[in-house]
């Protein structure tokens, strides 16, 4: 749990503030695809297609032909179903307490109470139980990515040194708003498949050359998960873009489109929509906190209430003389347990908000009551505080975060491609 990377749920909120009405229940339900041993039904597909259609309209994107949109959405459903199956195999689940906290964050990000969020969702024609199920799915997919990909990504000091040496203008704060089209290709594709992929890319470029809207072309051509959002990936600094995209946008003016670029996933076409100066990390003196903690992760075996009660008992033992570090070594489920729960010096923003808020309220030597975060339940002890000039350290920390995110994104794309290639899929859409 090193540094507790913050997981952002804003995308879930944005997806649901403008949702469409579900498909009529009276229509006959049929199977449109088999994913391993599970069925995807026509009602599930209709609902997702309607949602995608509504999102594209709200972005003022011309709709692709209905059959094209259906195929795009069906492929997304297949990939999602394959991930959920893998999550179940890995015993990943989201309990009601975790779901409730996530919905609270979504409401807060939109300046709603949970009751106001529910009213908004239901006013848009979405059943509250359906909304909760979809948020639960999103959380499961996030936890699966953490388990299968993010937790295995490491960044060495040498990589940070090399990055800063070869990117002297890095962290300048220049940001790019980028959209992309991905044309996927299976692993170990042959020459004929590569030729077909290049031909598809040329047709995409011809359409863009005729000034067709990039978002529309992405919606009916791209095989990236964000295709039905017009392929837009939002504002990012150059360092936070995949390396292939960063190199491309550095040579593009706003409005220009890159030639097709090859990666392990397939061919990519990138458009630079806008460019701005976002302000980089400058020199700054900040207050750092040296802290340690004991973490208990909830599971099917350890419920929320049991974890909290156990930490309450541990706190009493520590207050009455038990050694915090020794208890952390034997009880904590965090990687820091081997160091007695010591997290080192923490700067503002290094931990999730729930942890940081509780930590900041403690005096040196004081131990918190049990604190809930997305990672589980914590006991926190502040050891000392200091003022620190962060100019160089902030650059290194920023470089580490950039490299970690870039490596994570690339590893996730590769993992997702392998998962999809290894999934048995039987299409029945045409037979319907």
Q: Any overview of this molecule?
A:
- It is a single chain.
- Helix 2 (42-58) packs across helix 3 (66-89).
- The chain has helices spanning 10-17, 42-58, 66-89, 96-109, 114-123, 128-148, 157-166, 191-209, 214-221, 243-249, 304-319, 324-331, 353-360, 391-421; strands at 31-35, 38-41, 174-184, 232-237, 261-263, 266-277, 285-296, 342-346, 371-373, 376-389, 425-427.
- Helices cover 47% and strands 18% of the residues.
- It is of the alpha+beta class.
- The two termini are 47 Å apart.
- The strands form three sheets. A four-stranded antiparallel beta sheet has the order 4-3-6-5. A four-stranded antiparallel beta sheet has the order 8-7-10-9, with helices on both faces.
- It contains 14 helices and eleven strands.
- It folds into three domains: 8-168 and 390-432, Porin chaperone SurA, peptide-binding domain (Triger factor/SurA peptide-binding fold); 172-280, Chitinase A, domain 3; 285-388, Chitinase A, domain 3.
- The longest helix has 31 residues, at 391-421.
